[in-house]
């Protein structure tokens, strides 16, 4: 009887873990834009705030809709409670411990409150003297008015707008995205066209009976994917759950490993113990860099004050240690 109970408990845990992996699906920038563009354009008509600015702020402030605040409080703009707020609240650590943020019933309510937040506060009044199609002036004006403390806030908004052609929405035009390659180049993606890391650059630590060669990078074990590999194939060889691999490598569980791609079979480290800095190359994403150095993507972004989902500009020196 005890054995049956343990078997059932093990099965239940596996089901919960498997189900939880579905909840971790990360929204892409294209999905975010296509989901909220109509709301942003509707609010533009009512409140005279450029749809491009609203969408770019939503993408940036919510981590493309994947942040804790966006997922658990439907708060896409990082708006804190402030004096006079009588609605629902959500508490989490931010600039200080256990800060109070506004909580909404859905994302549209967050978009509406964002519009009201800008239109009802004197410090933002000057924004509405600007041309509604001048997204650059709006981006700079938001920073000047104190919306964000990040000194690069205007540049981040402008980059998101230009790389995703969000300014088209300010003119009532929906860009026709021919493929995912034409949208979100400023957002971390799984792959780039840069040369892949080579096995000769890493320490070979063991060869499994299946023929898999295991390498070590920054104290973390990884393999190079074979042609035709799937997450399930790799997981079966190393006797781990298939959902763990996309999680360790910070990739969508629906993605497919490419031949020659680095695939970590353990959780990556918070920092690199051997290399202090990295100079970003043209076309290189933050995800690329995190993989090359065996560092958790979220920690790399936080260490360098770069919002998750945004790539660093070529030539920028990133801290790894």
Report on this model:
This protein is of the alpha+beta class. It has twelve helices and eight strands. The protein has helices spanning 2-23, 29-47, 51-61, 68-73, 107-119, 135-144, 153-163, 167-170, 231-238, 244-248, 286-293, 297-303, and strands at 88-92, 99-103, 203-207, 213-217, 220-224, 262-264, 277-279, 317-319. The strands form three sheets. The protein has a four-stranded antiparallel β-sheet with strand order 3-4-5-6. Strand 4 (213-217) and strand 5 (220-224) form a beta hairpin. Helix 2 crosses helix 5 and helix 6 packs antiparallel against helix 7 (153-163). The protein is elongated, with a radius of gyration of 22 Å. The termini are far apart. Residues 1-23 and 177-191 have low confidence and may be disordered.
Order of helices and strands: HHHHEEHHHHEEEHHEEHHE
How large is the share of residues in beta strands? 5-15%
**Main sheet, how many strands, which sense, barrel?**
4 strands, antiparallel
Low-pLDDT windows of residues: 1-23, 177-191
Shape type: elongated
Give the tally of β-strands: 8
Specify Rg, calculated over alpha carbons: 22 Å
Strand order within the widest sheet? 3-4-5-6
Arithmetic mean of pLDDT: 84
The first-to-last residue Cα distance is 52 Å
Helix content: 25-40%
Structural class: alpha+beta
What is the chains' assembly state? single chain
How many helices?
A: 12
């Amino acid at each position: 009887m005890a054995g049956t109970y343990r078997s059932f408990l093990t099965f239940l845990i596996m089901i919960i873990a498997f189900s939880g992996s579905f909840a971790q699906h990360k929204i892409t920038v294209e999905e975010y834009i296509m989901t909220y563009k109509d709301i942003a354009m509707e609010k533009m008509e009512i409140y005279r705030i450029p749809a491009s600015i609203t969408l770019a702020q939503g993408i940036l402030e919510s981590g493309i809709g994947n942040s804790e605040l966006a997922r658990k409080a439907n708060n896409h703009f990082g708006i804190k409670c402030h004096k006079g707020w009588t609605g629902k609240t959500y508490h989490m650590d931010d600039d200080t411990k256990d800060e109070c943020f506004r909580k909404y019933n859905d994302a549209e309510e967050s978009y509406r409150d964002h519009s009201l937040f800008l239109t009802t506060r004197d410090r933002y009044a000057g924004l509405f003297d600007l041309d509604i199609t001048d997204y650059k002036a709006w981006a700079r004006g938001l920073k000047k008015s104190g919306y964000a403390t990040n000194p690069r806030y205007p540049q981040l908004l402008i980059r998101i707008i230009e790389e995703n052609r969000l300014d088209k929405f300010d003119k009532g035009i929906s860009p026709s995205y021919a493929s995912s390659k034409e949208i979100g180049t400023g957002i971390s993606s799984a792959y780039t066209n840069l040369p892949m890391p080579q096995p000769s650059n890493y320490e070979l630590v063991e060869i499994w009976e299946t023929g898999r060669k295991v390498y070590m990078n920054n104290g973390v074990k990884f393999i190079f994917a074979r042609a035709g590999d799937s997450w399930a194939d790799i997981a079966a060889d190393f006797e781990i759950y298939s959902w763990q691999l996309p999680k360790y490598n910070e990739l969508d569980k629906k993605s497919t490993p490419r031949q020659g791609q680095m695939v970590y079979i353990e959780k990556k480290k918070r920092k690199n113990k051997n290399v202090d800095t990295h100079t970003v190359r043209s076309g290189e994403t933050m995800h690329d860099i995190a993989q090359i150095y065996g560092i958790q993507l979220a920690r790399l972004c936080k260490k360098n004050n770069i919002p998750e989902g945004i790539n660093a500009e070529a030539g920028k020196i990133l801290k790894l240690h």
